[in-house]
Design goal:
Blueprint (H helix, E strand, L loop, with lengths): L3 H7 L1 H14 L6 H10 L2
């Protein structure tokens, strides 16, 4: 079984910052971060 809470705790500050930045910028639909995510997901 995966320890998702444990994995989250290890990178919590990075995730929280990325989520805050995406929501704050309101560019979460076809924004820069979405493009980066799509590029990384294709690999």
């Amino acid at each position: 079984m995966l320890d998702l809470k444990g994995q989250y705790r290890k990178i919590q500050s990075e995730i929280d910052t990325a989520l805050f930045d995406a929501v704050h910028s309101a560019n979460f639909i076809n924004g820069k971060d979405v493009s980066i995510f799509q590029e990384n997901s294709e690999n």
